[in-house]
Amino acid sequence: MVGDAENAEHALVRGRVLRPDVAVLDVRLPGGDGIAVCRELRSQLPELAVLVLTSFDDEDALLDAPALRVMCASRSRAPI
């Protein structure tokens, strides 16, 4: 099953309804941010795997962000 969301709030609603195995999020979302959405979804769905994408220019700062270090099982600098 595949679902999409228009903004951060919609992503949380869709997550509760669809109960996905995997979520693909951008760090920057309309109406919020992907980190907050990731935290909330993972609190509701602890087994959820999350792929976080971003277009941030400062990749080192992003990959070292404390919020991401806590949530990420692994990180990659490779382009997708």
From TrEMBL:
One Pfam family this sequence matches: Response_reg
PTM-bearing positions, type 4-aspartylphosphate: D26
Protein's recorded name: Response regulatory domain-containing protein
InterPro entries membership: CheY-like_superfamily (IPR011006), Sig_transdc_resp-reg_receiver (IPR001789)
Organism whose genome encodes this protein: Streptomyces albiflavescens
Domain Response regulatory as annotated: residue spans: 1-80
Keywords of the record: Phosphoprotein
GO biological process: phosphorelay signal transduction system
